[in-house]
Design goal:
Blueprint lengths: L3 E6 L3 H12 L4 E7 L3 H11 L6 E2 L2 H5 L7 E4 L7 H9 L3 E4 L7 H14 L3 E3 L7 H11 L6 E9 L2 H9 L12 H4 L2 H11 L5 E7 L29 H10 L7 H4 L5 H10 L16 E8 L3 E8 L8 E6 L2 E5 L3 E6 L5 E5 L15 H15 L9 H20 L3 E2 L36 E5 L10 E6 L12 H5 L20 E8 L2 E7 L14 H4 L11 E6 L5
Parallel strand pairs: 1-2, 1-4, 2-3, 4-5, 5-6, 7-10
Antiparallel strand pairs: 7-11, 8-9, 8-15, 9-10, 11-12, 12-13, 13-14, 16-17, 17-20, 18-19
Helix pairs in contact: 4-5, 5-14, 6-9, 9-14, 10-12
Bound molecules: nicotinamide-adenine-dinucleotide (NAD).
The site of nicotinamide-adenine-dinucleotide has 27 residues, from helix 1.
Length: 565
């Protein structure tokens, strides 16, 4: 499989990080072009990736003007510079990895979804939390039914005192009109993660929160506009010199220090503290985003969730408690404890995150997981490898917009089902854009799960050309002997490639868990070794390509011969 060629738009923190994944995996991806206005960053990036001067330009429009230079583009500009390049590169046929948030307003998010669907290109949004080993483990427990029905959820994002001061008081995300709301900038990850774990989008939200502490009203007596001139700096927890000088002394030449200086020297840091935005007193900035916020969400099935984002914590990982009818799960981003109500025993699962859950260390393996999935999807033409596709990302962005409206207006906001999009519509990988389009199906999104058709022209063994699946509107009838549902309860699935040599490898590994309480559960894994291979029915091929984000709802499977969904 040839490596995927990539163009990078914005050689800042995120663009540099994703591109380094490509350098570490030259068999999977190579960076062939970059657009970055800052000369120092552009030159450093081009040298690191061996990009010639012709393909290292100052503005994304210069790359777009030259047509399609690469298989895919990584759009890593700031929040308000996402929609325009996403639409332009989609129209050129690039597959797109787009940093979150998709855009700071709903109309632009919808335009991005429409542009990628119309162009038939893949879109992966930077919801890196979906791609960590920890998330995979939580998701498997939830889908495995061990918790029973999840009735309540508690989720905390402990932003941390210095991180808040760095990014959301002094830094790039301090003002909603320059970037996005705090909830969108920081916690779109959290609302997205809850939706992913629960397998469904929320119906209603309310929210409370304010900017309370980081204001002029709380400025201590004797404080100066800059920490380096301040007589009370030593007693201030938010001192900029203490944070950044400590990092420089420890040789931590990465985020967040790399945001403040390009040249890691005491002189450059002194200059930045004296004149740059990161040396300002936290009580004398032009910030307006909240420093604490609570969101209450109601999901289908009467699941009620609360989410808390707060600046006022020590450095810590996000934590979650899922309260089910059979067990309680508590997770902290690394370890998961499941207390079973029947046995009264607690199971401890320790996942091995690749680095801490922060930007400097790749979000616990999430950054690498996203690149792995995205490049794999582009290389094989399998959009279902992407867990943060356009529609599920739009759905979670809509919950953020609704929560922010609720906070500002003091209302309870309703979110339209299926993000107001046509649930019947299926995006199809356009002929010629994927290298090896395997099936006429791109059902990577739970929003598209209600009905779909998988077409396998020329399938061997006299197989039906199409199998349709539709969500049962009521409890399914008892299975007829020999029906698809009857078949599916026989055991576990295996890889597609093991059944049909023409399917590209690696292919997703999936297995079918026999229904519990009458409800089938579909699960899918990333490419990997075949775990079970004892089903002999070819329909398991189809089972393997169902999206992993399908909710554990009732499904009817039926054989058919029509290509219509
Ligand atoms: N997925 C995550 O967990 C995560 C974490 C942090 C940030 N982000 C998001 O990633 C995006 C980038 O964040 P960052 O911290 O890398 O920002 P950054 O400021 O470090 O990088 C953005 C880069 O874009 C460049 N740029 C500006 N205009 C451009 C143009 N016209 N053409 C090409 N490049 C241009 C800037 O010069 C800058 O180098 C933001 O939207 C941010 O919210 C996501």
């Amino acid at each position: 499989m040839a490596p995927v060629s990539l163009a990078v738009i914005g050689a800042g923190q995120r663009g540099t990080g994703y591109a380094r994944w490509a350098r570490r995996h030259p068999d999977r991806a190579s960076v062939v072009a970059v657009a970055e206005p800052r000369q120092v960053r552009r030159a450093r990036f081009a040298a690191e990736h061996g990009i010639g001067a012709g393909n290292a330009v100052a503005d994304w429009r210069q790359l777009a003007d030259r047509g399609r230079l690469a298989d895919a583009v990584l759009i890593c500009t700031q929040d308000r510079l996402h929609a325009e390049p996403a639409e332009a590169f989609a129209a050129l046929g690039y597959h797109i990895l787009l940093e979150k948030p998709m855009a700071p307003d709903e109309a632009a998010c919808r335009r991005i979804v429409a542009a990628t669907e119309e162009a038939g290109v893949m879109l992966a949004v930077g919801h890196v939390m979906r791609y960590t080993p920890y998330t995979r483990a939580v998701k498997e427990i939830v889908e495995g039914g061990q918790l029973g029905d999840i009735m309540s959820v508690q989720h905390l994002e402990p932003v941390g005192f210095w991180h808040q001061a760095h990014a959301y008081v002094r830094g790039n995300w301090r003002r909603a009109d320059l970037a996005a709301s705090m909830l969108m900038a920081k916690s779109c990850h959290d609302l997205d993660w809850l939706q992913y774990i629960l397998g469904r989008a929320p119906l209603r939200v309310s929210s409370f929160g304010r900017l309370t502490h980081f204001t002029a009203a709380n400025r201590p007596a004797g404080a100066a506009d800059r920490c380096v001139d301040c007589s009370v700096e030593a007693s201030c927890p938010y001192s900029a010199p203490r944070l950044y000088r400590d990092l420089l002394e420890r040789g931590e030449h990465r985020w967040p220090l790399s945001v403040v200086i390009e040249d890691f020297s005491p002189g450059a840091l002194d200059e930045a503290l004296r004149h740059g935005p990161y040396g300002r007193c936290v009580y004398a900035c032009d910030n307006d985003v909240v420093d604490h916020q609570v969101v209450a969400l109601e999901f289908p099935g009467a699941t009620a969730a609360t989410f808390t984002m707060t600046a006022f914590t020590k450095p810590a990982r996000r934590s979650t408690r899922l309260f089910g009818t059979r067990a309680e799960l508590a997770g902290d981003g690394e370890t998961i404890r499941v207390y079973d109500f029947l046995t009264r025993a607690e199971r401890l699962i320790t996942t091995a995150p690749a680095g801490a859950m922060n930007a400097a260390e790749g979000h616990g393996g999430g950054d690498a997981g996203l690149m792995d999935a995205f490049t794999g999807a582009v290389a094989t033409g399998h959009p279902e490898l992407i867990m943060s596709g356009p529609r599920e990302s739009l759905a979670s962005h809509l919950s953020v917009f609704a929560a922010e409206r609720a906070r500002l207006n003091g209302t309870v906001e309703t979110i339209p089902p299926y993000a107001g999009l046509d649930p019947e519509r299926t995006a199809v990988t356009a002929p010629g854009t994927a290298r090896r389009p395997p099936v006429q199906d791109a059902m990577a999104s739970p929003m598209r799960c209600t009905r779909r058709a998988l077409v396998r022209p020329g399938a061997p063994g006299g197989l039906p050309a199409t199998i349709t699946a539709s969500r049962a509107t009521s409890r399914p009838p008892p299975p007829a002997p020999g029906s698809a549902r009857d078949w599916t309860s026989r055991g576990r699935g295996c890889t597609r490639s093991s059944l049909d040599g023409s399917w590209p490898a690696p292919s997703p590994v999936a297995w079918w868990r026999p229904p519990q309480d009458g409800r089938p559960v579909l699960r899918q894994r990333k490419p990997g070794p075949v775990r079970d291979n004892h089903l002999d029915h070819p329909a398991q091929i189809v089972m393997a390509v169902f999206p992993r984000a399908c909710p554990a709802a009732s499904w009817r499977m039926a054989w058919g011969t029509s290509a219509s969904g």
